[in-house]
Amino acid sequence: MSTAPSLPYGPQTAAVRGFLVRLAGLGAADRAGVVARYEAMADTRAYEAADARLGEVIARSGREEARDALSGPLLQLVKRQGTSASAGADVELEPIAEPALAALLALMVRDLLDDATARLLTDAFSDTIPLG
Asked: For the whole model, what pTM was predicted?
């Protein structure tokens, strides 16, 4: 008897896991490129609207639990070396944390987002982790 595979990130679990694996393999130059692209667009009205739309879609879809499940794996990948995630300790995150979170959340609800919104939220990774 086989059991159904676990989908901790919802129906887009395979895409999210693939992104996490590729994120883990990015070198310093690729990470810096992602951060630079993200910083160039993060303060634009279009990006802010896409980010707001992302939040609405997550809430409306009921995928908050899947969103929360992303925090552990992402934290492991973006925590600065030498910082601890123990209770009460401040954890320093690498600059790639914010663009990675946006891209992961967009992937998590990719089936519910329009193409323009998904593209804006994942564009910082377009040169390093092509997302189709």
From this structure: 0.88
